[in-house]
Design brief:
The protein has 27 helices and 20 strands. The protein is α/β, with parallel strands linked by helices. Among the domains are: 34 residues, no CATH class; 202 residues, no CATH class; 130 residues, no CATH class; 118 residues, no CATH class. The strands form three sheets. Strands 13, 14, 15, 16, 17, 18, 19 and 20 form an eight-stranded mixed sheet that branches. Strands 2-1-3-4-5-6 form a six-stranded parallel sheet, sandwiched between helices. Helix 10 links the parallel strand 1 and strand 2. It starts with a helix and ends in a 14-residue tail after the last strand.
């Protein structure tokens, strides 16, 4: 490990030294060829930056593998396990820094590309050809052998091939008048648009998923186990939609974390108690998309991804060989990075079609690259500048992201009755991921005197250590019905927000979990550090991680979920005694049923469109741009407490969610918009922020504004009442339901929602 770190450090120093002369372009005004000189410097720098980024990423992967090997080895040393882990902390920090440097270098390379292209495209908007002071073949001659993709597109080192490539494959030069336009690479005809039809057989999906990995076998086993529930749910939704026309989408599913290039640490641990939550979610996404009748392609390797996308051979400097054949791409952060590296110039064009499966979510403040850098929100995972609702989460952490979810097994009437009549009140399950949970004294003290026994459920390395019988381990990997006779399911703080508590509640158990005081966040807990979300009391209000499973605490609650202070033995003891005397029915929120997930994904596919540009952004130099916008379509509610959509205002029938569901409330200073809407029985809807971002809205709410500023801040629009200063949002990507500041009262766009389906409004289906 020390050797690898040393090599990495000296490699970094060498690359930084070699980069030194690359940006020494001449000063502006030195000669008529200044632009040409700077362009050449940028192109040379791009190659060095790409090589530097690639080497740093390879180094980071090697270190990550070493870290996993050491952690898995040291874990079996009992109490001494924490000392090797502590020793590795400096190395882990260095690894994070190297990873961040690699990402920064990659970003710089992309910015160099953008600056170069913008400088060459300066004249296009005025109807003249872009200004190229010297034949572009000069830099092509210096660069064309650096990436095999140039040769793939016909570049052979001749002046003619350079000009053809620059004018027909990329857009650096205008079309060549002497070229026969039919000689350019032909674009394939658009795929015929057919109507989607609900599927009644999951066998083709199982074949489509493929073989060769334990993780794929697990997902196929889960789909088979839930097949009948999926099929019944699909029939019910089909009846609910009443034959509504739905275009079939061509969808690529690329599970990046299962590729060899990302390390794929999940597959070898599937049958050894490894983390299964991500694979549970992906299996359910595959089943839902297939049953809805869409055309799917599934990849778990980089080679397959390149083939499906039409990536030319090489290192990602060229665009795709043909238009993207997919309407949607579902992937994760690993897959997103792989696409960015290999799609070249095409990534920015097609990124609006991407949906990112993101377990813990990405808040707008972390997603916006410039803002995250300036305000200290930059992490290793954020700043993609996507629409925040392109990120899809496992639980509804924040309305800023789309809630994807997963499904839990539903019980029929016979099974529910059987569970009620066969409960064993003296048994419980312990849900934890680390052996240290047995150090909690109150757990060991309580059952002993009462004659209770404990069934042990172990995830992660403890399962591999022999704590969990293999027969039970194999059974729980697919089904949770084995907990049905048990009364109590006890969580000890980790893992966060997994599917297991919902499965236990659905099988009639009561979930008992610890209350975190203070709430866990990226500021006080290692697990959340580096993730693109605050999830803390001072930033996200109601979105903070106040317990092991905030969704169970906030959306389910008693009698199915008890959240108590484990450091208070009296509170813990009283909760356990009450739970053991209480009989509860199995409960599963509708949004975690097969039908609920099908309903939600159907709505997203039909209505979410991130490729169609809405109204153009307001001019950044305008002193009060809100004054230039049309009058507010909002009106004061009959009781004068909030704003609603005016009956006289026009409605776009294509708008989603429908604007009739909008209500505008003003938050308290210590509440985020998420918490504000929740207190009124509503859900924050970030899509509606554009209707609030007007000066007229302050006036309609009787808010006095001595001044109105137009700035970039994820808390705006808002008002600082003590000084009568109002603020409007300058950057639409920063519209955010999360976050608060004691200085501001925020304008919050709220909407209603379907019972048991928080992601959809009442008329959203």
């Amino acid at each position: 490990r020390i050797f690898v770190l040393g090599i990495g450090f000296f490699t970094l120093c060498f690359l930084m030294t070699s980069l030194g002369g690359q940006f020494s372009a001449k000063r502006l005004g030195d000669s008529p060829f200044t632009i040409r000189t700077e362009v050449m410097g940028a192109l040379e720098s791009r190659g060095v930056l790409r090589r530097m980024s690639d080497m740093l990423e390879m180094l980071m992967k090697r270190m990550d593998i070493l870290a996993r090997l050491e952690n898995s080895t040291d874990f079996h040393k009992g109490d001494e396990a924490r000392f090797p882990l502590d020793r590795f902390q400096p190395a882990a920090g260095l690894m994070e820094r190297i990873q961040a440097i690699a990402q920064n270098v990659s970003d710089i390379a992309i910015k160099v590309d953008q600056i170069l292209r913008n400088s060459l495209l300066n004249g296009k908007g005025e109807g003249r050809a872009p200004r190229v002071s010297l034949p572009p073949s000069q830099w092509m001659r210096a660069r064309w052998t650096s990436d095999p993709c140039y040769a793939f597109f016909g570049v052979d080192g001749t002046e003619c091939s350079f000009l053809i490539y620059l004018s027909e494959v990329e857009w650096f030069c205008p079309p060549l008048p002497w070229r026969n336009r039919t000689a350019a690479l032909p674009s394939p005809p658009p795929l015929p648009r057919v109507q989607a039809a609900f599927q009644s057989d999951l066998a083709p999906l199982l074949e489509l998923i493929g073989t060769g990995k334990e993780s794929l076998s697990f997902m196929k086993k889960r789909i088979r186990h839930l097949a009948q529930q999926w099929l019944r749910a699909a029939r019910r939704l089909e009846q609910k939609l009443k034959g509504r026309q739905r275009d079939q989408k061509h969808i690529l599913i690329h599970i990046g974390f299962l590729t060899e290039e990302s390390g794929d640490v999940f597959s070898p641990r599937v049958l050894k108690g490894g983390p299964l939550g991500e694979m549970v979610q992906w299996a359910d996404i595959l089943a839902a998309l297939f049953l809805l009748g869409h055309s799917l392609r599934v990849t778990v390797s980089l080679k397959e991804l390149q083939s499906h996308l039409g990536v030319p051979p090489g290192r990602g400097n060229c665009p795709l060989t043909s238009p993207l054949p997919f309407d949607l791409i579902y992937t994760d952060y690993h897959g997103l990075q792989q696409m960015k590296q290999h799609m070249g110039l095409s990534f920015k064009k097609y990124r609006c079609r991407v949906r990112v499966i993101d377990t813990f979510g990405t808040e707008p403040a972390y997603n916006h690259e410039e803002y995250a850098t300036l305000r200290g929100y930059r992490t290793n995972w954020g700043y993609w500048n996507l629409q925040p609702t392109q990120f899809m989460t496992m639980f509804p952490h924040t309305p800023d992201n789309s809630f994807m979810g997963f499904v839990s097994e539903e019980l029929n009437r016979t099974e529910r009755q059987f569970i009620k009549s066969n409960k064993v009140g003296s048994m419980a399950v312990v849900y934890g991921k680390e052996a240290s949970i047995w150090k909690v004294g109150v757990l060991g003290e309580h059952p002993g005197g009462q004659g209770h026994s404990w069934a042990e459920l172990w995830w992660g390395r403890t399962a591999a250590s022999g704590y969990l019988p293999r027969a039970l381990e194999a059974q729980i990997s697919v089904s949770f019905t084995w907990v049905s006779p048990l009364q109590l399911f006890i969580g000890f703080g980790f893992p966060y927000e997994g599917p297991a508590p919902l499965e236990a509640i659905a099988n009639g158990c009561v979930f008992l979990q610890a209350r975190f005081n203070p709430p866990h966040s990226s500021l006080n807990h290692e697990f959340f550090r580096g993730k693109p979300t605050s999830r803390e009391a001072s930033m996200a209000g109601g979105e903070r991680v106040s317990s092991q499973h905030p969704y169970a605490e906030d959306f389910i609650g008693k009698p199915h979920v008890w959240t108590v202070d484990y450091n208070n033995s009296e509170e813990f003891e009283a909760a356990v005694k009450t739970i053991m005397r209480t009989q509860v029915d199995p409960y599963l929120p509708y949004e975690y049923t097969c039908e609920g997930m099908l309903e939600r994904i159907h709505a997203y596919i039909q209505h979410q469109d991130f490729c169609t540009t809405s109204s153009p952004p307001l001019p950044p130099k305008a002193k009060s741009p809100a004054m230039q916008s049309p009058p507010s379509p909002l009106a004061l509610s009959p009781n004068a407490t909030h704003l609603v959509w005016s009956p006289s205002a026009s409605r776009d029938p294509r708008a989603w969610p429908p604007v009739d569901s909008l209500q505008v409330w003003v938050s308290e200073t210590r509440h985020s918009c998420t918490e504000t809407c929740r207190r009124h029985g509503l859900v924050c809807e970030p899509t509606f922020f554009r209707f609030l971002n007007k000066k007229e809205v302050f006036l309609q709410l009787s808010i006095a504004c001595d001044s109105t500023e137009y700035e970039m801040n994820h808390l705006y629009p808002a008002v600082a009442e003590n000084v009568h200063e109002c603020y409007l949002q300058k950057e639409p990507l920063l519209f955010s339901c999360a976050g608060y500041n004691t200085k501001y009262r925020r304008l919050c766009p709220c909407r209603d929602y379907r019972k048991g389906q928080v992601a959809l409004c009442r008329d959203c289906l």
